[in-house]
Amino acid sequence: MSARRFLAALGAGAAAAWGLYTWGAHLVTPVCVWRGARGARRVALTFDDGPDPEWTPRVLAVLAERDVRGSFFLVGARAVRSPDTVRRITAGGHEIGNHGWAHRSLWLCGPRRTSVEIGRCQEVLADLTGRAPALFRPPWGMVNAAMFPVLRRHGLRCVFWTIQPEGLVPVSAPLQTRRLVRRARPGAIVDLHDAPGLPGAPARLCEALPAMIDGLRRADYAFATVGELLEER
Ligand SMILES: [Zn+2]
After folding, report:
1. Measured in angstroms, how far is the CA atom of residue 140 from the centroid of ligand 1?
2. 222 C-alpha to center of ligand 1: Å?
3. Which of 81, 131, 142, 188 could join 162 via S-S bond, C-beta 3.0 to 4.6 A?
């Protein structure tokens, strides 16, 4: 584990523990989730960092072709630049989540900036879609303790992931697919990227996505949005 990942895990663990403590009543439905219910053989495909006017429509086309609905965690500043792409996501029946206003690591944000990152994105997505998101994914998976009251104010749950076929270093499309199908478990939340953060990531995703969906279906998995997976708890 790299030092950065160790710190991220440490930060997430400490903040999650603090959050669960302060939330008390929410212990039954945890504020932070890494996976959905294990009862049904379903997984959720999630797409971070968009909307991207070039790549998101390609991802939407693959999902439509294969009749799969996913969850898109959008960056607020990108959403205001591509409102049509946001509408295409909702028109496809997909779920929209909050991925921060400017994709800042919350690990580096104070309480005020944390509130702006989450709140401004929430506002923009509610305006564009007519519905405020119920889910937040922290950029880079990095959190801080100030995040929890902000999430509570907006009625948001924090969604991490179970499987990340490609993380901070590029992974070829075939290897991503093999990793995903091998690691899939009932209730898994899969973290994918439909906009450039890591160079070339969306192109590799578009190459891998059809095989990912087909491979998971061959292994008897059905698809759900994160919201649907969490409802089963
Ligand atoms: Zn991201």
Report:
1. 6
2. 25
3. 188
First to last CA, the chain: 31
Question: Could you tell me the pTM of the whole model?
Answer: 0.88
**Which residues have CB under 8 Å from 69's CB, separation 6+?**
63, 92, 93, 94, 95, 223, 224, 225
8 A C-beta contact, residue 94 and residue 69: yes
Catalytic residue among 48, 49, 52, 194: 48
Q: Following CA atoms 153, 225, 109, 163 in sequence, which dihedral angle do they give, to the nearest 10 degrees?
A: 140
∠ CA 68-70-94, nearest 5°, is 95
For 110-122, the pLDDT digits (tens) are: 999 999 999 999 9
Active site residue 48: yes
